[in-house]
């Protein structure tokens, strides 16, 4: 943008209240700053990818592109813009919001970095409480080839889990040696394979045991709990998409999922005319200069 004289310093000189957001993969400085990359590269450089995977002696597993592209990138960038807008109400000054997906991913993992050496994160990948190392915080296959998620970390939830599985807590204590933990994991796996996922849902529906079904995308949209919370919307073609979150009490966001996705330039003229106050002459001049693309109203 600096090559076009549209960098932050150029524009802030014109408008001191401007909030200028920059979202990059590797950040503004360093040997990677000019290189291309994708979510997996940003998460790798953040250190977080080394923590992802099912076994400590196998290769790290690439996650869905949610960590850097979305959580550490766009969401933190949007949060930074809101922070800058809030600060501007006090100072009257704009500023640059510089968001790197590497830095954002690392920041998301702050508690993992700070927790190194603690009881939660003292072991290799897949050997800690929250990454598959605990038999009471794991996933288990059911009789029909589906899966249940178990997250019974606290003692009161563990007791409910053991009760639902028909076991004796004195025989299967939560606090145990690593060897016993692996033995109990095999026992849990064997028991979960004895019933279908639907049957296990019936068992645990009345128990606060932190046990839930693992749903596919299609199943999630049709799940009664999600229907009750209006988590998804369905369009005319029968496809589902999540509704905006979080929900604001006075000014909740509305989904446009029922509409077709806009084409490139479909909304340009409307935004420039109605939202930003430019004239039709201005819009035509922008188009002649190649500054915008629009589908004419």
TrEMBL record:
GO terms for cellular component: mitochondrion. GO terms for molecular function: alpha-methylacyl-CoA racemase activity. InterPro entries: CoA-transferase_III (IPR050509), CoA-Trfase_fam_III (IPR003673), CoA-Trfase_III_dom3_sf (IPR044855), CoA-Trfase_III_dom_1_sf (IPR023606). Pfam families: CoA_transf_3. Gene3D superfamilies: Crotonobetainyl-coa:carnitine coa-transferase, domain 1, formyl-coa transferase, domain 3. GO terms for biological process: bile acid metabolic process. It comes from the Eukaryota. Belongs to the CoA-transferase III family. This is Alpha-methylacyl-CoA racemase. It comes from Laodelphax striatellus (Small brown planthopper). The lineage of its organism: Eukaryota, Metazoa, Ecdysozoa, Arthropoda, Hexapoda.
């Amino acid at each position: 943008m600096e090559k076009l004289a549209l960098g932050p310093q150029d524009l802030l000189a014109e408008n001191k209240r401007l909030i200028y957001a920059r979202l990059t993969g590797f950040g503004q400085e360093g040997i990677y700053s000019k290189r291309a990359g994708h979510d997996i590269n940003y998460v790798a450089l953040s250190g977080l990818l080394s923590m992802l995977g099912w076994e400590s002696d196998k290769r790290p597993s690439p996650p869905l592109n949610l960590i850097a592209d979305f959580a550490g990138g766009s969401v933190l960038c949007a949060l930074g813009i809101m922070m800058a807008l809030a600060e501007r109400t006090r100072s009257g000054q704009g500023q640059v919001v510089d968001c790197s997906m590497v830095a954002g991913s690392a920041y998301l993992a702050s508690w993992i970095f700070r927790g190194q050496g603690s009881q939660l994160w003292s072991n290799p990948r897949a050997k800690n409480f929250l990454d598959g190392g605990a038999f009471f915080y794991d996933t288990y296959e059911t009789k029909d080839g589906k899966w249940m998620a178990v997250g019974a970390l606290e003692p009161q939830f563990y007791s409910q889990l053991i009760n639902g599985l028909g076991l004796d807590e004195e025989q299967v204590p939560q606090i145990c040696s690593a060897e016993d933990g692996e033995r109990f994991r095999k026992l849990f796996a064997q028991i979960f394979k004895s019933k279908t996922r639907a049957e296990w849902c019936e068992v645990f529906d009345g128990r606060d045991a932190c046990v839930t079904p693992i749903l596919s995308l299609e199943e999630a949209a049709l799940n009664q709990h999600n229907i009750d919370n209006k988590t998804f919307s369905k369009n005319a073609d029968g496809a589902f998409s999540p509704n905006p979150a979080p929900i604001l009490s006075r000014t909740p966001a509305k989904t446009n999922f029922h509409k077709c996705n806009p084409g490139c330039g479909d909304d340009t003229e409307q935004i420039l005319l109605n939202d930003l106050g430019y004239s039709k002459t201005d819009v035509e001049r922008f188009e002649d200069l190649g500054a915008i693309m629009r589908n004419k109203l």
